[in-house]
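We treat protein structure as text, and this decision shapes the records that our systems exchange. The remainder of this section carries one protein's record, kept here as part of the documentation:
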Amino acid sequence: MSAIAKRIELCSTDDVAPGTALKVETEGLTLAVFNVGGEFFVTDDLCTHGPGSLSEGYLEDDIIECNFHNGQFNVRTGAVVAPPCMVPVKTYPALVVGGKVTIEA
């Protein structure tokens, strides 16, 4: 039996100014929504290295720096950019529909 993807609405595009992030808790997920020059990206909010919240980190271009141990991830791919993080962060394909940022999960 295959799972059917469900579209989850996270927030309005107006809720996330360019160069910022927003923490969204919905459907049992805790996510970070990033606005990189009008493009939206979604990752798990929890840093893979410690208790840091990525939505509270420092976003520069498409790199988020965790506010806990200063590890860095690429919000487009989830890839680790700087230690001490070693495990990539999970990303979700974001789609803007009618001014709302959505994902399929």
Remarks:
- The first strand starts at residue 7 and ends at 12.
- The mean pLDDT is 94.
- The chain has one domain: 7-104.
- Residues 9 and 102 are 4 Å apart (CA to CA).
